[in-house]
Amino acid sequence: MRNAARRLTHRFVLIFSLVLLGSLLSVGAASAQFGQPKPVTEEADSLHTLYLLVTVAGFIVFALVTGALLYMVVRYRRRSDELPPQTHGNNLLEVIWTTIPIVIVLFLFVSSFVVLLDVEEDAEPEDLTVNVTGFQFSWEFVYDLADLGRGEGPGGEGTVSVIGTGSEEPLLVIPVNEPVEFKLTSNDVIHSFYVRNFLYKLDVVPGLDNSFKVTAHETGTFEAQCAELCGLDHALMRFQVQVMERPDFDAYIAGLASEQLEQARVP
Amino acid sequence: MATIAVPRTGSAFRPAVLDWLTTVDHKKLGILYLYFTMFFFAVGGILALLVRTQLAVADSTFVSNDAYNQIFTMHASAMLFLFIIPIWAAFGNYIVPLQIGAVDMAFPRINALSFWLLPPAGILMFSGFFFGGSADAGWTAYSPLARNTGTGMDLWIIAVILLGISSTIGAANFLVTMFRMRAPGMTMFRMPVFCWNVLVTSILQLLATPVLAAALCMLYIDRNFGGSFFDPNGGGNVILWQNVFWFYSHPAVYIMILPGMGIVSEILPVFARKPLFGYKAFVFATLGIGGLGFSVWAHHMFTTGAVLKPFFGFMTFMIGVPTGVKIFNWLATLWRGSITFEPPMLFALGFVSMFLIGGINGTYSAAVPVDFAIHDTYFVVAHIHYVLFGGSVFAVFGGLYYWFPKFFGRRLNDKLGVTQFVLMIVGFNLAFFPMHLLGLDGMPRRIATYNEADWEALNMASTIGAFLIGVSMIPFLIAVVAAFMRPKDQPDDPWEGNTLEWATTSPPPVHNFDSLPEIHSERPLFDQRHGIGGHGVHPATGEGRG
Ligand code: HEM
Ligand SMILES: [Cu+2]
Ligand SMILES: [Cu+2]
């Protein structure tokens, strides 16, 4: 009788672990990044590594605790009317299982701290700066022609800007393999600058000078949108980020510049 | 003592209604709280289904952007302020005085006032729909957005202030009741764990709610009297709102879950026939969560660029420690127990397993750099619901099935309870697990629509799950109606309980107890049943009395 129950329990735990492992593997296989979009900046690489670490720790804790819970439920279901032993507690056990979470969270905290220091480096003065303004309900990206970072660049005076409208999503263009700084401004309400493949967002707050730096290591076009509720058409505050080779970037900016100088001359 | 004869005039109906409107009996007020909060659970649930209908497919036009912002704002506001926070006052009101062997709350009239502040607040909050639209800036009402929206926002502010007053005076009442009204022998460390959780919750409410009231007054002044507390152009500070708001609202997260943990800690021992493992450790863990709860508010603000990230990240991780202790204690309570699976126990076990997931996915936000990606995405929506639905709402139903016989003298049908549980836990996971994946992939929360075809399948799954949750309420409603169609037939102690509420009739008389058993531990009824500690079974409260 007892043995049969034990065998049942063991089989149960085995099946549970197999199902868990199976679902883990299938999730992993479904997306190479375990759910996160592909990281395209150096910063995003470390952010993604930390994410994987937390995920592994989380799955271990989940599997152990849920496994233990299922085990108890199957193993200790009522079989007789006998009163079970009335254990009120155990100091040693209490100390042990206060220590376990302390160790886990300290480990996760230290890892987070290291990654935080790594990704929050300040930009250098010679880095390309893009001035980003969020407004209800789109974005403006402004480049200073005299400060286009490390390339040859079109040179010249003044600024060029890309501005989105309700019907047209703006395109933000940056060069690959170079640090780029984003300076974020808002004059109405709070928005949040969120590029999925950067695995990063930073709020655009009226009255606060927020900025951050990334170095993209992959070319391509990536989806982005406002991540802080900002009113009626918040959902439509989308934009795209295109990472280009430096010469393409320079050509693109030069194109914008001549276009906008043209327009400026017309009236 | 003289008795006063109350002249009976008119039909029997009138006095009954009058009686409910003027009652100061903690049990009746508890029932009123229960009806009120369950009504708003239904309202919030219907709004949630509208949200899920809108998001089922990409580029949906089921509701307008404007309507969407109102709907999700009112969904959260109803669920938090009109359902989950006050429903703990329903259980607290009914159960705390019984569990400590008191005749009533310390201040019965203030208790009535706490309740009667709720209906006007609920009406005000929802009346926005008739004045050009309800509040639509999210339940967090971030400024400057919330400074500039329509009249519904003012009504919302006043409503939340009223609710804050209700919960502040209610908290004071609970504290005085537990400090001053305990029966002889009921020392602090013999108080049932549910009471301890209500106690810590009350401390949090007393300390945190006034801060929210202050913030709301500032917002009201900004909106209506030319103030500029939150306007940088007038010398104000936008982030100030978030600091004061979360200084309340993080502790409020514990206000929303601690009493649920208390309920689960009552149910597990009874259905496993064992004492709660590590009673004192559990109490200290609760106090620890309460204390730490005041030092983590800025973990909601990591992406503002205006907070000390390592400090708040560290404190947030530390909350995992007392929480972990609680989970281990629950497991150890089951260990070598003798477990049965009536509906209260199923919901309690559902709580433990779902809340565990809510704790684990919470660490993703505590790890600050990971939060940069998931903040303000559907990952956070998943987290909120694993804690507040998988946690708190499962505890609510556990508590309802457990105490229904005490409240109404009738038992909810077990089979219907099991059916509800199965539908609910399947629907719940189908509705909310996919949100993790959506959030990781970058779907922001609070968006009225999306255009990513990739997100459609997961969103559709989530919507189906949400409707399954809705369906799971049908067996519950049938069980309630069926119970009320039967006569009161429940004994004092249908579950072999441990605590004093089971030492009186179901439902209890107005004065609660004819006599109390002797109290030698945190389980006076267990002791009595097994003849431990006292002088055998007390004649007046022997079991089986109908
Ligand atoms: C049928 C059950 C429920 C469903 C289907 C549901 C669904 C949702 C969805 C889809 C959102 C995201 C809306 C958005 O960001 O645009 C949401 C937000 C939220 N829900 Fe629920 N929910 C349910 C029950 C609950 C319960 C029981 C609570 C609390 C006790 C709750 C509290 C919240 C909160 C606090 C938010 C955040 C709203 C915000 O971002 O301002 N929900 N819910
Ligand atoms: Cu926005
Ligand atoms: Cu919080």
Could you give the topology of this structure?
The complex is a heterodimer of chains A (267) and B (546).
Chain A: H1 2-30, H2 42-75, H3 91-119, E1 128-135, E2 138-144, E3 159-163, E4 171-175, E5 179-186, E6 191-195, E7 200-204, E8 210-215, E9 220-226, E10 238-244, H4 246-265
Parallel strand pairs in A: 1-5, 4-10
Antiparallel strand pairs in A: 1-2, 2-3, 5-8, 6-7, 6-9, 9-10
Chain B: H1 13-22, H2 26-55, H3 65-99, H4 108-116, H5 118-127, H6 151-180, H7 193-224, H8 238-272, H9 279-292, H10 309-334, H11 343-366, H12 368-374, H13 378-408, H14 414-440, H15 456-484, H16 524-529
Bound molecules: protoporphyrin IX containing FE and copper (II) ion (2 copies).
Brief summary of the model shown:
Chain A has 267 residues and is an alpha+beta fold. Chain A is built from 4 helices and 10 strands; from the N terminus they run αααββββββββββα. Chain B is globular, with a radius of gyration of 23 Å.
CATH topology of chain B: Cytochrome C Oxidase, Chain A
* Multimer state: heterodimer
Report the structural category of chain B.
mainly alpha
**Helix count of chain A?**
4
**CATH architecture name of the largest domain in chain A:** Sandwich
The whole-angstrom Rg of chain A is 27 Å
* CATH class descriptor of the largest domain in chain A: Mainly Beta
**CATH homology superfamily of the largest domain in chain A:** Cupredoxins -  blue copper proteins
Highest CATH level, the class of chain B: Mainly Alpha
Give the beta-strand count of chain A. 10
Strand-residue fraction of chain A? 15-25%
Uncertain residue segments of chain B: 1-10, 534-546
Q: How many E strands of chain B?
A: 0
Distance between the termini of chain B: 29 Å
The CATH topology of the largest domain in chain A is Immunoglobulin-like
Give the bound compounds. protoporphyrin IX containing FE, copper (II) ion
Arithmetic mean pLDDT of chain A: 87
